[in-house]
Design a protein that fits this description.
Rossmann fold; alpha/beta; 8-stranded mixed sheet; 20% strand
């Protein structure tokens, strides 16, 4: 069984840590797959128009960051991932749980001043559900919502227009206007509290409302082995089953159109005694034991599903 205290410390560390830090199988011929290996500009169809996925500009945005910011690129594959999600300059993008802005900075630089970037935070009443945040910590997390536009403006000149809101407070004037909604390692806690507060259902409903017709949702999520129990793979240990995620999106009015092994790691095979935060860069429960640390270093970062869904309902 998982130690509740260990999980609490791990989740807290991961949430605070946000401040610091390919093999495709096409499912829908109507949306052209992007060759993430090519440096050339790629094209895909959307809303009867042509959208340019400019991998040259995207690579430039990724490479413009500091060495510290680029330290996790080898595990996160931002160029390949955002290309797979068919994100293009000038788009309107909503990013779930942007935290300290690791992906936000890349997106803002790439989208440019003609784009829009919206940060979606947890609902304010979700923070107490974790059961271990101090009042001061919760208020700090809540304050990130309103501060999102300021964070984007500080990334540089010619940034996209920006707004911040929660899953419960998405402005109705944005409904039907967003090109892409991105959930990058953002689903596990939403699923964890689904039974208690319907958090996953609400998050996917909000994504559906925000998107244009045929808009796309990109998902990167720590992936549980399908053989593990549903109880363990409910998000509390950080992992979800791919089958769970696909069903949740299908039920919410989305269709799976593509998936990729961009962020897969076959070495990460967690047992039901494991949590995702045992791995680098968190090292929760493994940092002080040289043997355990060497073992998780040999694994690397988590195995992650990378999925693309289309709004259909």
């Amino acid at each position: 069984m998982l130690n509740k205290s260990t999980i609490s410390i791990a989740i807290l560390s991961a949430l605070i840590g946000l401040s610091a830090c390919t093999e495709n199988s096409s499912k829908d011929a109507s949306i052209e797959s992007v060759d993430t290996e090519s440096p050339k500009t790629q094209m895909s169809e959307q809303d009867n128009g042509v959208v340019s996925v400019d991998t040259t500009a995207l690579s430039a945005a990724v490479n413009s960051r500091s060495e510290d910011e680029k330290a996790r690129d080898e595990a996160r594959h931002p160029v390949e991932t955002l290309s797979f999600f068919r994100v293009a300059p000038g788009m309107s993008v909503a990013e779930a749980l942007p935290g300290g802005g690791w992906y936000s900075k890349i997106l803002a630089t790439y989208l440019g001043e003609k784009g829009q970037l919206h940060g979606i935070n947890y609902n304010e009443d979700m923070w107490p559900m974790f059961g271990f945040f101090s009042e001061e910590a919760m208020q700090s997390m809540i304050a990130r919502t309103a501060k999102f536009p300021e964070m984007i403006s500080e990334f540089g000149e010619k940034m996209p227009s920006a707004s911040g809101f929660t899953f419960a407070s998405a402005p109705q004037e944005l409904f039907g206007t967003v090109d892409r909604v991105l959930f990058v390692r953002a689903l596990h806690n939403l699923n964890r509290f689904e039974g208690e507060a319907g958090t996953m259902t609400q998050a996917l409903k909000t994504a559906h409302q925000l998107l244009k017709e045929d808009g796309l949702v990109g998902v990167v999520q720590h992936e549980s082995p399908e053989a593990n129990s549903d109880e363990w793979a409910n998000g509390g240990a950080g992992y979800l089953k791919k089958s769970q995620v696909i069903k949740a999106f299908t039920d919410a009015g989305f269709e799976l159109v593509d998936e990729s092994n961009i962020n897969a790691n076959a070495k990460d095979l967690p047992s039901e005694k494991d949590i995702v935060w045992r791995l680098p860069p968190s090292y929760n429960g493994t940092a002080d034991d040289p043997e355990l640390k060497a073992a998780v270093d040999a694994i690397g970062e988590s195995n992650r599903m990378t999925l693309l869904f289309k709004k259909v309902g």
